[in-house]
Amino acid sequence: xxxxxxxxxxxGFIGTNYTARLIERGEHPTIFDNLxxxxxxxNVQWLRDTYGAESFEMxxxxxxxxxxxxxxxxxxxxxxxLAAQVAVTTSVIDPRTDFEINxxxxxNVLEAARLSSLKPAVIYSSTNKVYGDLDGVEVSERENSYYxxxxxxxxxxxxxxxxxxxxxxxKGAGDQYVRDYHRIFGLPTVVFRQxxxxxxxxxxxxxxxxxAWFVIAAVTGKPITIYGDGKQVRDLLFVxxxxxxxxxxxxxxxxxxGQIYNIGGGRENTLSIWKEFGPLLEKELGQDIPVSWEGWRxxxxxxxxxDIRKAARDFGWKPEIGVEPGIQKLFDWVKANRDLF
Length: 341
Description:
It is a single chain. The chain is an alpha/beta fold. It has a single domain (about 5-340), classed as 3-Layer(aba) Sandwich (Rossmann fold). The chain has helices at about 15-25, 40-50, 65-75, 90-95, 95-115, 165-185, 210-220, 240-250, 255, 275-285, 310-315, 325-335, and strands spanning about 5-10, 30-35, 55-60, 80, 120-125, 140, 145-150, 190-195, 195-200, 225, 235-240, 260-265, 270, 290-295, 305. Strand 1, helix 1 and strand 2 (about 30-35) form a beta-alpha-beta unit. The chain is globular, with a radius of gyration of 19 Å. It starts with a strand and ends in a 5-residue tail after the last helix. The relative contact order is 0.14.
């Protein structure tokens, strides 16, 4: 019999894709979401239209409300904690709200799990931003991209954390609370420090979800601004590959509990944000794409590539969908749903 599953932020981009995946394999997940982010009500409606309203449970609630999340977690044996404030720029404008959602909200989730009689496993969606701007890591420059001079496989989980920006601080606080609730209370928790995740149902905006934002802007003719020099490199991971990692981490919880994993595209799936991605988009669109240029934004890493070998060793995971086919899938979804933007 399947375990009862709760997904906080389940109406968001990753949560919607995971809910669909769970339903398709016969699960009956519960979504906990305050539906405040653009696109989330539409995602819930899509799930209802596609799979039927009875195929999942929807709880409209906020992780800042400890009573609401405590009630929702009762009966769950597996919790995917995806709810978050997700933009660095938003955290700079309003650091208090960012803290309350990401740090206090995560503590509320952990306390609810700790006090539950079922002691559910908690898998937490953290971020590579906990590593800050990677001060001290040598970065070299090519014509169209930056790269790590001394880390050919990317940044490992042993890299010192250096929270940069209120967002990095709030997510990093949640990250460490999740880890420590295993050490101190024995709660089976797993931290995923995620790189750039992209795919369908992602309503990217300028300060978050840049891959989707560039595709949406290109398809709909919205203006695109590049901050920095466009050579910044990221490792990209298609959402289905991330969800496979969620599954495997849960299936191997005896080994993964208490562990931290860098989860991204790794060295095989990298792209500079405009010098390489721009021509790829223009090829898909069949025309040139005009852009404007601005200065660097606070905390913007010149390069981030996740070393994903620990996940491969511990639970046999690796990305299966390459950058070009993944972006093609996203491009097709945006074109088919351009009326949503």
